[in-house]
């Protein structure tokens, strides 16, 4: 699904502007990365993009159509959003029940999930490597496992567009790699991924295009090769950043270091 933001700006009621002059386009193929320091407005940007909070000015368009013209159910059958992990009020659900909720936009308002919905949920749990946790309560798994379940919940919806807000932040080294693998498999099959990440190496290794979100300045939209550079990242984070590549057989992996 093609995604565009035109002239987006946002301020909380009575507050200073958090975002201004947000302009970007993602063709819905591969990975689009969002990178910036804490508090710059990346989560706010994702919420405004998806209409979960209203842009103060500007608009989001999906497949060229303003979000306001989309039927909500139609939109949420195609898009899935994974916010930063929170247990909230879902603690009493099993992981399988939590994941099947990802099918909500495809299940009638007064209907219960059918066999096909449970199969989708189980497949999604397998995709993120935690099918064995399906009967466990959400309150009985770790923060990282809950994060994996949240991603499974989004995958259960078979989205065309997946929006991930810091999906790796709660995860150990192995599970971070697992999520990147899931993203790779997914984007090969078709769905596009918008990835808000605190890991420049993840943005650098996956994204074709992206958005740098500095604090208090308009975001910079450009091809990854232009914005995920030592100079741009050093300026963005206010610290000397060095990028090197490591070769492992046929794989080239970027390594990004911040030098104090
Ligand atoms: N409900 C709110 N009311 C007022 N200000 C808020 C609210 N939520 C967030 N903010 C402020 O808006 C700014 C942007 O917050 P946001 O969560 O979008 O940043 P972020 O770039 O996603 O940060 P992080 O990388 O730390 O997750 C911050 O300065 C934050 O303090």
Describe the overall structure.
The protein has helices at 42-49, 72-78, 95-100, 115-127, 143-155, 173-189, 200-206, 224-227, 230-237, and strands spanning 3-11, 17-26, 31-35, 57-62, 65-66, 79-82, 161-165, 192-196, 207-212, 220-223, 240-248, 251-259. The chain has 260 residues and is α/β, with parallel strands linked by helices. It is globular. It starts with a strand and ends with a strand. The structure holds adenosine-5'-triphosphate. Adenosine-5'-triphosphate binds next to helix 1.
Query: How much β-strand is present in the residues?
Result: 25-35%
Decide which structural class fits the backbone. Answer: alpha/beta
Characterize the overall form: globular
Q: What is the percent of helical residues?
A: 25-40%
- Please tell me the overall pLDDT: 92
State the strand order across the main sheet: 6-7-8-3-9-10
Please give the alpha-carbon distance between the first and last residues.
Answer: 40 Å
What compounds are bound to the protein? adenosine-5'-triphosphate
* Biggest β-sheet description: 6 strands, mixed
Secondary-structure element order, N to C: EEEHEEHEHHHEHEHEEHHEE
Q: What Rg, in angstroms, do the CA atoms define?
A: 18 Å
Total E-strand runs: 12
Low-confidence sequence ranges: none
User: What's the total helix number?
Assistant: 9
